[in-house]
C-alpha cells in the first residue's frame, strides 16, 4: 500500500521474484513525493526538483529494473555562484579518491585559504576514521553544527561549504542534523569513491520515471490500482488479514507492506498492534522539515548551465529545466527558458505569501544571472511542502522501526523506516528492497535485493 518510491521498489522487487503483487495508491499517479503532474495549461511540473548522487546505488538499481536509468543525466561539474558574481567549480581530476577534487578545491574562489585549511582538517578526521569518527558515533548523538565547531571550522567554511552541501542533501539546518548523517554524506559522496559526488538529474518529468513499474508488476500477474486509499486494516488474532477500502471493500493477501508516510501508518495501526510492537511506539516522535520549490518561466534563455548552486542566498539551487529536458536534436529551438529553484529547510518561507517568495527569488536570480535582468518573467509558480521529509535530528534513528514487525502479515516500508539513510529517494528504495526481503524470508526465501554501497577505492581503502 502506497505508490511512492518505497512501495514501488518493494512491489517491483517482489514481482521480479515471481510474486503476484497488488499495489494500491490513493492518488491518480505513482511516485508519491517524488512525482510530477500536469497543470491545467498542459505544463508538466515536478512536485519539486529531485536529484540523486552517484553513491545512491539502490536508486540506480531501481531505475535499471524499471527501464528508466537512461532518463537520468549525470553531471560531474558543480557550479557555485555568490552574489558578488564570484564563481567556483568543483569537479574530479585524474587523482584517486580521496584527493580527486583537490585541484578544484584549491582553486575554489568563494573560499579563502584559512577556510579551506579548516575544511581539509575536518575531512581528514572523517577519512582517517573510515567515515565513522568516534566523536560523532559516541552513545550520545551530536548535531552536525556541534561536530563542525568541535573541529574548529571557520564561519565562512560552515556557511559556504558544509551548510551548502548538507542542507540540500538532508533538508535540515546543521544544528538540527545528526552529525552521523552529515558525515556519511561527505564519506560516501566525496571521500570513499571518485564518482559518489556525481549529480544525477532526471531528463523527464518525474512521473515518467515510473512507467515501467506497472509493466513489471503486471507482467507477473499483478496489478497497480490507483485512486484507492486504504481506509483501515483488519486484524484477527493479532495477525493482519485484510485492508479495507472505500465502500467497505476488503482485500486479503499473504503479506501486506504499508509503504505510507509515518503519520498515515500511525493512523492505520490500532493501539493494541502498536503496543505489541515496541518499535512502533514512537511514530509520533518524528519531526518534519519543509522544502519550497519555485518555478520561473522566462521569455528567453538566461543561463546555459544545467544547474547552479547559489551561495549566501535563500535560493539554494537553480535547475535549468529547459536544458535538462532538451532532446539531442530538438526539432524546434526552445522558446524561452524554464527554471526551477529549490530551497531546502525553507522554514523562513513557510509563512511568506506566494508573491513575497516570487519577489525574493526573482531578485536573487537576477542578481546571480545578468541575462535574467533583461528577461521578462512570463509566469511563476510556488510549491511549498511544509512536511517534505522527516527531520534528521540527532538521535532520530532510535525511533525508526525495522521493515519487519512482530505482527504476522504486517511489513513496513518508507524513507522513515530503519535504513541508516536520511529521507531521500535512495532511503525509500532501500526500505522497499528491505521490506521485499523480509516478506520473502517469512515465506522461506533468502533472496536479496539490497545493493552494496560504491566500493571504497584509491587511497581511501587504506582507512577502512
Ligand atoms: C519537495 C521535496 C523535494 C525532495 N527532494 C529530494 C531530492 O532531491 N533527492 C532525494 O533523494 N529525495 C528528495 N526528497 C525526498 C524523497 O521525495 C522522499 O524521501 C521519497 O520520495 C519518499 O518515498 P516514500 O515512498 O517513502 O514516501 P512517499 O513518496 O510519501 O509515498 C507514500 C505514498 O503513499 C500514498 N498514500 C498515503 N496514504 C495512503 C493510503 N491511505 N492508501 C494508499 N496510498 C496512500 C501517498 O499518496 C504516496 O504516494 C524530496 C522530497 C520533497 C517533498
Quick take:
By secondary structure, the protein is of the alpha+beta class. The protein contains 14 helices and 19 strands.
What is the strand and helix layout of this fold?
Elements: H1 5-16, E1 22-24, E2 36-38, E3 44-46, E4 52-53, H2 57-65, E5 72-75, E6 77-81, E7 87-91, H3 102-106, H4 113-128, H5 144-150, H6 155-170, H7 179-191, E8 199-202, H8 211-219, E9 223-225, E10 232-236, E11 239-244, E12 250-252, E13 256-258, H9 262-268, H10 271-276, E14 288-298, E15 307-310, E16 317-320, H11 321-325, E17 337-344, H12 354-368, H13 371-374, E18 377-390, E19 410-412, H14 425-442
Parallel strand pairs: 1-9, 6-15, 13-19
Antiparallel strand pairs: 2-3, 4-8, 5-8, 6-7, 10-11, 11-12, 14-17, 14-18, 15-16, 16-17
Residues 1-7, 24-27, 32-34, 47-48, 50-52, 229-230, 259-261, 264, 291, 293, 385, 388-389, 414-415, 423-428 line the site of flavin-adenine dinucleotide (FAD).
Amino acid at each position: 500500500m502506497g505508490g511512492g518510491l518505497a512501495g514501488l521498489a518493494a512491489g517491483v522487487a517482489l514481482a521480479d521474484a515471481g510474486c503476484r503483487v497488488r499495489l494500491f495508491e490513493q492518488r491518480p499517479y505513482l511516485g508519491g513525493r517524488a512525482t510530477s503532474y500536469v497543470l491545467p495549461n498542459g505544463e508538466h511540473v515536478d512536485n519539486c526538483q529531485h536529484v540523486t548522487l552517484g553513491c545512491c546505488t539502490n536508486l540506480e538499481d531501481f531505475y535499471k529494473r524499471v527501464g528508466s536509468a537512461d532518463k537520468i543525466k549525470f553531471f560531474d561539474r558543480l557550479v557555485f555562484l555568490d552574489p558578488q558574481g564570484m564563481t567556483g567549480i568543483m569537479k574530479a581530476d585524474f587523482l584517486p579518491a580521496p584527493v580527486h577534487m583537490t585541484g578544484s578545491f584549491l582553486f575554489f574562489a568563494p573560499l579563502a585559504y584559512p577556510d579551506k585549511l579548516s575544511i581539509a582538517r575536518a575531512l581528514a578526521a572523517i577519512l582517517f576514521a573510515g567515515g565513522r569518527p568516534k566523536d560523532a558515533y559516541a552513545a550520545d548523538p551530536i548535531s552536525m553544527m556541534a561536530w563542525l565547531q568541535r573541529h574548529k571550522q571557520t564561519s565562512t567554511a560552515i556557511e559556504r561549504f558544509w551548510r551548502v552541501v548538507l542542507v540540500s542533501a538532508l533538508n535540515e539546518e546543521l544544528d538540527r542534523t545528526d552529525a552521523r548523517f552529515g558525515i556519511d554524506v561527505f564519506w560516501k559522496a566525496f571521500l570513499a569513491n571518485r564518482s559518489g559526488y556525481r549529480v544525477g538529474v532526471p531528463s523527464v518529468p518525474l512521473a515518467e520515471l515510473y512507467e515501467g513499474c506497472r509493466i513489471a508488476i503486471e507482467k507477473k500477474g499483478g496489478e497497480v490500482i490507483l485512486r484507492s486509499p486504504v481506509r483501515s486494516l483488519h486484524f484477527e488474532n493479532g495477525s493482519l488479514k485484510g485492508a479495507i477500502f472505500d465502500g467497505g471493500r476488503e482485500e486479503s493477501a499473504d503479506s501486506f507492506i504499508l509503504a505510507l508516510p509515518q503519520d498515515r501508518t500511525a493512523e492505520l495501526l490500532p493501539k493494541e498492534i502498536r503496543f505489541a510492537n515496541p518499535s512502533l511506539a514512537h511514530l509520533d516522535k518524528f519531526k518534519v522539515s519543509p522544502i519550497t520549490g519555485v518555478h520561473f518561466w522566462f521569455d528567453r534563455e538566461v543561463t546555459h548551465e544545467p544547474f547552479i548552486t547559489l551561495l549566501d542566498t535563500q535560493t539554494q539551487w537553480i535547475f535549468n529545466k529547459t536544458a535538462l529536458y532538451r532532446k539531442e536534436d530538438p526539432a524546434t529551438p526552445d522558446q524561452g527558458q524554464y527554471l526551477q529553484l529549490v530551497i531546502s529547510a525553507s522554514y523562513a518561507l513557510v509563512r511568506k505569501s506566494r508573491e513575497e517568495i516570487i519577489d525574493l527569488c526573482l531578485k536573487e536570480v537576477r542578481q546571480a544571472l545578468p541575462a535574467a535582468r533583461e528577461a521578462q518573467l512570463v509566469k511563476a509558480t510556488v510549491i511549498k511542502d511544509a512536511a517534505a521529509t522527516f527531520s534528521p535530528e540527532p538521535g532520530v534513528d532510535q525511533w525508526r522501526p525495522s521493515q519487519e514487525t512482530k505482527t504476522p502479515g504486517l511489513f513496513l516500508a518508507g524513507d522513515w523506516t530503519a535504513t541508516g539513510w536520511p529521507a531521500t529517494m535512495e532511503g525509500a528504495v532501500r526500505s522497499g528492497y528491505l521490506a521485499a526481503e523480509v516478506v520473502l524470508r517469512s515465506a522461506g526465501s533468502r533472496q536479496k535485493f539490497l545493493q552494496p554501497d560504491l566500493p571504497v577505492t584509491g587511497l581511501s581503502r587504506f582507512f577502512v
